[in-house]
Amino acid sequence: MPRPRRTQISVEDTPYYHCCSRVVRRAFLCGDDAYSGKNYDHRRAWVELLLFELEAVFAIDVAAFAVMSNHLHVVLRVDIDSANRWTDREVLEQWHKLFKGDELTQKFAKGELVEAHEVHRLKHSIAIYRSRLCDISWFMRCLNEPIARQANQEDNCTGRFWEGRFKSQALLDEAAVLTCMAYVDLNPIRAQLADTPEQSDHTSIQLRIRAALKGEQPKNLLHFISNERDNQPNGIAFLLSDYLELVDDTGRIIRSDKRGAISINSAKLLARLNIPHDNWLKLTTEFGKLFHGPVGTLQALTDYCEHLEKRRRHFAASCQHFHSN
Fold it and tell me: What is the full DSSP assignment across 151-174?
C-alpha cells in the first residue's frame, strides 16, 4: 500500500530527494515506438526545457536528471532558506509565473492598494504559495501534468500519460546523494543508449561535461562547490572534476565492451564516501532494485525512521553497502 507523501519527505532530515516517473501504455512515448514506428524523442526535450523553467520558479534545485525513453529521473534539493528569504511580493511574482492566483494577489503584486479587511486573506494565500514553492509534490505536479496534456494532444487521445504518482526517495547523507546522482547520470549507458556520459542526451552529466570544457558549471543545475567551508553557497560539497572522473570510470566498467578501472582520484573519492569499489559498482547499477525507500547509512536511516516514527527500517540490508567491510 502506498505511503502518504508526508511520511516520505522530511526536509528536517534531508533536503535531497530522488524522484522517478514512468509512462503508461505499451508504447515508448518518449523515444522509439516499435509498435507504431514513430519516434517521440522530441518529447524528451519538452521535459528538459520544462524542468529548467520550474527550477527558476521553485525554491528547489536540480542536482541530476535523466530523461529516458519511458521514464524520468530527477535528484532534487529543497531550498527552504531561499523560500523563507523571499518577500511577500517575490513569492507572488514567482507563483504568478505558473498560476494566475486571484484578483487580490494580482493586485498586490502590481503594487496596488490592498484594503485592510483583505490583508488576512492575502497573508494566508502568500503563506500557502510560499509552502508550495518549496514542495516536491507541487514541483513534480507542475512537471508531469503539462507534459501529459501536450503528449495526449499530440496523440489525439485522452487518459493517463504517467503511471500513477511519482516515486520519491529521501537521500539521507552525502554518500547517498552522490551514489544516486551517478546512478541517474549513468542510466543511458546501462540501457546501452549511449557509449559515454558526454553522448548521453537529455542528462545532467552531459550538461556538466559541456560546461566543464569551458571552465564553467551549468547555471540551471546545482553546483559542485568543492569542500565544505564557512559561509559557503548552496551546492554539493565535492569537486566537480572528481565527480566527472568517477562517473566516467564507472561508465567504462559498466560497458562490457570497454576496458575500465577505478582511477586513483576516484578511489580517493570513494574512500571519503566510505564505499568499497565493488559496492560502488553494485549501487550504481542496481540502485533501483536495492532501494524503494530512504537511502543512506544505517545510522542515517535509523535517525530518519525515528524522527518520522516509523516502526521498521525498510531496506536496512541494502544500506549496508554504504559501509566498508
Answer: HHHHHT--S-SB-SSPEEEEB-SH
**pTM for the model:** 0.90
The tens digit of pLDDT for each residue in 172-201 reads 999 999 999 999 999 999 988 888 899 999
For 142, phi then psi, to 5°, come to -70, -20
Phi-psi region of 304 (alpha: psi -120 to 50; beta: other; left: phi over 0): alpha
Asked if 47 and 202 count as a contact pair (C-beta separation under 8 A), the reply is yes
Residue 268, C-beta contacts closer than 8 angstroms, at least 6 positions apart: 242
Q: For residues 172 and 301, is the Cβ–Cβ distance under 8 A?
A: yes
pLDDT (0 to 100) of residue 133? 98
Q: Residue 297: which region, alpha, beta or left (left: phi > 0; alpha: psi -120 to 50)? A: beta
- Looking at residue 78, its amino acid is V
Q: How far is it, in rounded angstroms, from Cα 196 to Cα 308?
A: 40
Pull the grid cell for residue 101.
Answer: 492566483
Q: How would you classify residue 93: left for phi > 0, otherwise alpha for psi between -120 and 50, otherwise beta? A: alpha
Contact 222, 204 (CB under 8 A): no
The residue type of 319 is C
The answer to whether 77 and 15 are in contact (CB under 8 A) is: yes
| pLDDT band per the 50, 70, 90 thresholds, residue 230 | low
Strands 167-170, 16-22: pairing kind: antiparallel
Assign 101 a pLDDT band (cuts: 50, 70, 90).
very high
